[in-house]
Amino acid sequence: MLEVSLRGATMPVSPFRKLMPHAEAARQRGLTVYPLNIGQPDIETPPAMLAAVQQADIRVLEYSPSAGNESYRRKLAAYYQRAGIPVTAEDILITTGGSEAIFFALMSCLNPGDELIIPEPFYASYNAFAVATGVHIVPVTSHIADGFALPAIAEFEKVITPRTKAVLLCNPNNPTGYVYSRAELEQLRDICLRHHLYLFSDEAYREFCYDSTYVSAMHLSGADEHVVLLDTISKRYSACGARMGAFVTKNKSLIAAALKFAQMRVSPPGLAQLLGEAATDLPETYFHHTKAEYVKRRDLMVSRLNAMPGVFCPSPGGAFYVIARLPIDDSEAFAIWLLETFSHHNQTLIVAPATGFYSTPGLGKNEVRLAYVLNRDTMNKALDCLEKALEVYPGRIG
Amino acid sequence: MLEVSLRGATMPVSPFRKLMPHAEAARQRGLTVYPLNIGQPDIETPPAMLAAVQQADIRVLEYSPSAGNESYRRKLAAYYQRAGIPVTAEDILITTGGSEAIFFALMSCLNPGDELIIPEPFYASYNAFAVATGVHIVPVTSHIADGFALPAIAEFEKVITPRTKAVLLCNPNNPTGYVYSRAELEQLRDICLRHHLYLFSDEAYREFCYDSTYVSAMHLSGADEHVVLLDTISKRYSACGARMGAFVTKNKSLIAAALKFAQMRVSPPGLAQLLGEAATDLPETYFHHTKAEYVKRRDLMVSRLNAMPGVFCPSPGGAFYVIARLPIDDSEAFAIWLLETFSHHNQTLIVAPATGFYSTPGLGKNEVRLAYVLNRDTMNKALDCLEKALEVYPGRIG
């Protein structure tokens, strides 16, 4: 018999995609469906970035170097330097989205069967990367009660084994929006040094830090060999479709290993590199505007959620997500009910059940992740729907 | 100690990249260095493709569906249908270059330790994909004496084991330029049916078939569940830097598994999809012009090579490579000598040692791959260099 591989069979279906048929059915019934479930901002991609591609004089769209165009790597290094991160072009591989940076990190640092510690809830696709690379994710649970702060470091120590090779931190965090403090990062650094672990820092949302000064894992001293910065322009410049990221480390052996995976796929996307390079020329004020907008959206979302009876939502310091605890029996059932049964003035919304972000079974059943990526008018309409829905949901508890 | 993974350590360095420091040193000494070693055409990327990107009205560069834009998949299906390949949009996943299509195929069909049979010499990066995915490549040797025709089917039968899961054929072949006949493909199909193997068909060079009517693996009857077409626009439209490919199969379970790997990286590159979609609108005459040009280049290269004493070069029916047997002791030593020691009127060339394309140690030591991707004037100058070089190379034999 012709069968798919075991890894093909066990790869998880994206939890977002599971809801798509239900959302499609709701739209077919004529409903307006507000997508609060995915991190696709409605913010315009900076026209200067698009212009860089659209005005480029290209005769032959040739392979770029496997590490990415030299000019882009230099300018990206300068961007990091402006953020107090002392890297050079030699420390950077341009990747096909942040996804490929994650893939390079797992492939280059871990063998099949090795363990990767991640605070949960975490970005659901990490599960897929783990299955694809044969790596075991070991979750350490963070809690909504303290806003999803870093779990006590003793919880990390407890799960370290001889197979543990790395800790992965998403900062600011997707899905919780939590921004880790310097003290928390230093604690993590210290156990990575003590146990010879890599520290993977997914900083996709690095520019979206609202209440404090952002600390990158690359700001930590004494951990140059350990830290790998995983980056992307997707969220930073509302350019999710470009697929343009970076793998950054000062560890020379590691970047040499990762480069071989980069050579395997020859080049990162050529046009998107032009887009990324142009992004490094944007004025600092670009982030002032976008951050100001996201702060307003966050404040609106958090205050409205907490005003709903039985709802608890910590106010996160970064990214553009919140996790809210709802008075519901089961977040997956609730998400489907919103699309299949509920409507309010011919509208409804999609939420991301938080179960998809936890590795420990049973967690997240009364939590959902909501993205504040839509303008406030639209968000208000979506939150009106949520408020009404919670009043009438048959699985309401508490 | 902090170490890179075993797979990171054992990943092969691209054989092309090994020569790069030597080529750079030659350029630093003021030499003109003709790159006959890589398949980077000098043919212009069709302006209509670039215009599709450059004139697109994009406000937010959003994620595309993981399978690729519906409009592109439909038009690509129509392109295949025009070539007599009866697929629909549902049978297609848009990938990040042909590379990702190869990756999806290995991940979805083979487990670590499974075996993949490939006629050698073969595209060197297959080795890298095999290491990355834990797959073992089992080579079956083809020979320059018969122009690298498909080895006797008994040679395939001999190496099939319970771990064999697939055969990979590149047609037209890189690096040999050989175009497999319908009879050869049917023989391969039959053993794949008999032994329950997938048949991966890398058709990157499908439009570059000069002396016969091209037969795709997807033209074979009775093998819909087995055949996976791996495709790319890189060579077809001289758009190597775009990173735009496709994974195509009528096997529903397989495409469902591959889609999960596609979801893992969210989307293929967005701008490149516009480029690819525009390519499907090019008139048929586009290929007439480019093929006519490549035929002239091939004929020039093959006739000049065979006119050199001690050189033998079969005339290949497709792609834009030849493998030539040279009167030399060691193709790697020769390639380095060309860059380090030799010059002719202040010029030299880079050749690809064929050793990098064989899996069996020792094979390819007196063979090189040459790409006829440069205009004929430039090619003549490069071949003048090669002719002179062979006269004076200290390792000349025979």
Task: Walk me through what this model shows.
Chains A, B: This is Pyridoxal phosphate-dependent aminotransferase. The structure is a homodimer of 398-residue chains. Chain A has 398 residues and is of the alpha/beta class. Chain A has two domains: 6-44 and 285-392, Aspartate Aminotransferase, domain 1; 47-279, Aspartate Aminotransferase, domain 2. Chain A has helices at residues 6-10, 15-28, 47-54, 70-82, 97-109, 125-133, 153-159, 182-195, 252-264, 270-279, 285-306, 331-340, 376-392; strands at 32-35, 92-95, 115-120, 136-141, 164-170, 198-202, 227-232, 245-248, 321-325, 347-350, 352-353, 367-371. Chain A has a seven-stranded mixed β-sheet, with helices on both faces. Chain A has a three-stranded antiparallel β-sheet with strand order 9-12-11, with helices on one face. The longest helix of chain A is centred in the C-terminal third of the chain and has 22 residues, at 285-306. The model of chain A has no long low-confidence stretch (mean pLDDT 97).
